[in-house]
Amino acid sequence: MTTLSTSNRLPTTSSTAARWAAYGAATWALGFAAVNIYLQIVGIDDSQLQQNWAAFTAVNLGVVVLKVFGAMVALATVQRWGRAPPAWLVSVSAWGAAGMLLLYAGYGLVALAAAGELLGWTRAGGMFLVPNLAYLGFFALGGALFAVAARHHQHRTATSPVWAVAWRASRSE
After folding, report:
1. 36 near 57, Cβ under 8 Å?
2. Number of structural domains the chain divides into
3. pTM for this prediction
4. Does residue 39 fall inside a structural domain?
5. Does the residue 7 lie in any domain?
6. pLDDT (tens place) for every residue of the chain, 173 residues total
7. Sign of torsion, CA 13 90 168 161?
Protein backbone atom coordinates (compact mmCIF):
# COMPACT_ATOMS: atom_id res chain seq x y z
CA MET A 1 0.00 0.00 0.00
CA THR A 2 1.34 3.43 -0.93
CA THR A 3 1.19 6.15 1.69
CA LEU A 4 1.29 9.83 0.95
CA SER A 5 3.42 10.89 3.89
CA THR A 6 7.13 11.33 3.28
CA SER A 7 8.07 11.60 6.94
CA ASN A 8 6.81 11.04 10.44
CA ARG A 9 6.96 14.69 11.42
CA LEU A 10 3.86 16.27 12.91
CA PRO A 11 2.04 19.04 11.08
CA THR A 12 3.33 22.49 11.98
CA THR A 13 1.38 25.68 12.32
CA SER A 14 0.59 27.81 9.30
CA SER A 15 2.83 30.73 8.42
CA THR A 16 1.40 34.21 8.01
CA ALA A 17 2.01 34.15 4.24
CA ALA A 18 0.22 30.81 3.90
CA ARG A 19 -2.73 32.07 5.91
CA TRP A 20 -2.97 35.22 3.78
CA ALA A 21 -2.81 33.12 0.61
CA ALA A 22 -5.45 30.67 1.85
CA TYR A 23 -7.81 33.42 3.04
CA GLY A 24 -7.15 35.31 -0.18
CA ALA A 25 -7.99 32.24 -2.28
CA ALA A 26 -11.17 31.65 -0.25
CA THR A 27 -12.19 35.30 -0.63
CA TRP A 28 -11.40 35.15 -4.34
CA ALA A 29 -13.56 32.03 -4.79
CA LEU A 30 -16.48 33.35 -2.72
CA GLY A 31 -16.36 36.72 -4.46
CA PHE A 32 -16.40 34.98 -7.80
CA ALA A 33 -19.36 32.85 -6.65
CA ALA A 34 -21.16 36.07 -5.65
CA VAL A 35 -20.78 37.32 -9.24
CA ASN A 36 -22.50 34.17 -10.50
CA ILE A 37 -25.31 34.61 -7.99
CA TYR A 38 -25.67 38.24 -9.06
CA LEU A 39 -25.86 37.21 -12.72
CA GLN A 40 -28.47 34.61 -11.84
CA ILE A 41 -30.65 37.15 -10.04
CA VAL A 42 -30.22 40.09 -12.43
CA GLY A 43 -30.01 38.05 -15.61
CA ILE A 44 -27.88 38.50 -18.70
CA ASP A 45 -28.92 40.48 -21.74
CA ASP A 46 -28.30 37.68 -24.22
CA SER A 47 -31.19 36.32 -26.27
CA GLN A 48 -29.49 32.93 -26.74
CA LEU A 49 -29.04 32.48 -22.97
CA GLN A 50 -32.59 33.61 -22.32
CA GLN A 51 -33.86 30.91 -24.67
CA ASN A 52 -31.87 28.32 -22.68
CA TRP A 53 -32.38 29.85 -19.26
CA ALA A 54 -32.97 26.49 -17.51
CA ALA A 55 -29.65 25.12 -18.79
CA PHE A 56 -27.86 28.35 -17.89
CA THR A 57 -29.33 28.21 -14.38
CA ALA A 58 -28.22 24.60 -13.87
CA VAL A 59 -24.67 25.33 -15.05
CA ASN A 60 -24.46 28.62 -13.16
CA LEU A 61 -25.61 27.13 -9.86
CA GLY A 62 -23.25 24.18 -10.36
CA VAL A 63 -20.41 26.65 -10.81
CA VAL A 64 -21.43 28.43 -7.58
CA VAL A 65 -21.22 25.12 -5.70
CA LEU A 66 -17.80 24.45 -7.25
CA LYS A 67 -16.52 27.88 -6.20
CA VAL A 68 -17.81 27.46 -2.64
CA PHE A 69 -16.05 24.06 -2.56
CA GLY A 70 -12.88 25.83 -3.75
CA ALA A 71 -13.16 28.29 -0.87
CA MET A 72 -13.51 25.40 1.57
CA VAL A 73 -10.44 23.71 0.08
CA ALA A 74 -8.44 26.93 0.45
CA LEU A 75 -9.49 27.28 4.09
CA ALA A 76 -8.80 23.59 4.75
CA THR A 77 -5.13 24.22 3.98
CA VAL A 78 -4.76 26.39 7.10
CA GLN A 79 -7.70 25.67 9.41
CA ARG A 80 -7.68 23.07 12.17
CA TRP A 81 -10.84 21.46 10.74
CA GLY A 82 -8.89 20.98 7.51
CA ARG A 83 -7.10 18.06 9.16
CA ALA A 84 -10.30 15.97 9.09
CA PRO A 85 -10.09 14.99 5.40
CA PRO A 86 -6.97 13.12 4.26
CA ALA A 87 -4.08 15.55 3.75
CA TRP A 88 -3.45 14.26 0.24
CA LEU A 89 -7.05 15.07 -0.74
CA VAL A 90 -6.71 18.68 0.41
CA SER A 91 -3.35 19.03 -1.36
CA VAL A 92 -4.60 17.48 -4.61
CA SER A 93 -7.72 19.68 -4.57
CA ALA A 94 -5.75 22.86 -3.90
CA TRP A 95 -3.14 22.03 -6.56
CA GLY A 96 -5.95 21.15 -8.98
CA ALA A 97 -7.59 24.53 -8.43
CA ALA A 98 -4.26 26.31 -8.88
CA GLY A 99 -3.45 24.36 -12.03
CA MET A 100 -6.82 24.90 -13.69
CA LEU A 101 -6.86 28.63 -12.96
CA LEU A 102 -3.28 29.16 -14.14
CA LEU A 103 -3.84 27.05 -17.26
CA TYR A 104 -6.98 29.05 -18.08
CA ALA A 105 -5.11 32.34 -17.67
CA GLY A 106 -2.12 31.07 -19.66
CA TYR A 107 -4.25 29.69 -22.48
CA GLY A 108 -6.25 32.92 -22.62
CA LEU A 109 -3.06 34.95 -22.78
CA VAL A 110 -1.71 32.91 -25.69
CA ALA A 111 -5.05 32.87 -27.53
CA LEU A 112 -5.57 36.61 -27.17
CA ALA A 113 -1.99 37.37 -28.18
CA ALA A 114 -2.37 35.16 -31.27
CA ALA A 115 -5.59 36.99 -32.18
CA GLY A 116 -3.98 40.40 -31.59
CA GLU A 117 -6.56 41.18 -28.88
CA LEU A 118 -4.29 41.26 -25.85
CA LEU A 119 -4.95 44.95 -25.21
CA GLY A 120 -8.64 44.68 -26.15
CA TRP A 121 -11.71 44.38 -23.96
CA THR A 122 -14.03 41.48 -23.12
CA ARG A 123 -17.55 41.12 -21.73
CA ALA A 124 -16.99 39.12 -18.54
CA GLY A 125 -20.14 37.27 -17.58
CA GLY A 126 -21.82 38.74 -20.64
CA MET A 127 -22.24 42.05 -18.78
CA PHE A 128 -19.09 43.63 -17.45
CA LEU A 129 -16.72 45.30 -19.92
CA VAL A 130 -13.21 44.46 -18.69
CA PRO A 131 -9.72 44.82 -20.21
CA ASN A 132 -8.51 41.40 -21.40
CA LEU A 133 -5.32 41.56 -19.33
CA ALA A 134 -7.27 42.37 -16.15
CA TYR A 135 -9.70 39.51 -16.89
CA LEU A 136 -6.84 37.02 -17.29
CA GLY A 137 -4.97 38.52 -14.34
CA PHE A 138 -8.00 37.85 -12.18
CA PHE A 139 -7.72 34.11 -12.90
CA ALA A 140 -3.93 34.15 -12.54
CA LEU A 141 -4.29 35.79 -9.12
CA GLY A 142 -6.66 33.05 -7.93
CA GLY A 143 -4.29 30.40 -9.30
CA ALA A 144 -1.29 31.94 -7.56
CA LEU A 145 -3.14 32.17 -4.23
CA PHE A 146 -4.24 28.54 -4.45
CA ALA A 147 -0.67 27.48 -5.41
CA VAL A 148 0.85 29.19 -2.36
CA ALA A 149 -1.79 27.68 -0.08
CA ALA A 150 -1.33 24.23 -1.65
CA ARG A 151 2.47 24.35 -1.39
CA HIS A 152 2.33 25.36 2.24
CA HIS A 153 -0.22 22.66 3.06
CA GLN A 154 1.87 20.07 1.28
CA HIS A 155 4.97 21.12 3.23
CA ARG A 156 3.12 21.42 6.55
CA THR A 157 1.54 17.98 6.32
CA ALA A 158 4.53 16.32 4.65
CA THR A 159 2.42 15.02 1.77
CA SER A 160 4.22 14.03 -1.38
CA PRO A 161 3.48 15.79 -4.62
CA VAL A 162 0.80 13.93 -6.58
CA TRP A 163 3.22 13.04 -9.36
CA ALA A 164 5.67 11.49 -6.86
CA VAL A 165 2.95 9.30 -5.38
CA ALA A 166 1.80 8.14 -8.82
CA TRP A 167 5.41 7.40 -9.80
CA ARG A 168 6.04 5.42 -6.60
CA ALA A 169 2.78 3.49 -7.03
CA SER A 170 3.69 2.54 -10.59
CA ARG A 171 7.14 1.37 -9.46
CA SER A 172 5.79 -0.85 -6.65
CA GLU A 173 3.57 -2.93 -8.94
Report:
1. no
2. 1
3. 0.80
4. yes
5. no
6. 444 544 444 455 668 888 999 999 999 999 999 988 988 888 777 776 778 888 888 998 999 999 999 999 999 999 999 989 999 999 999 999 999 999 999 999 999 999 888 888 887 766 678 888 998 999 999 999 999 999 999 988 877 665 555 556 666 66
7. negative
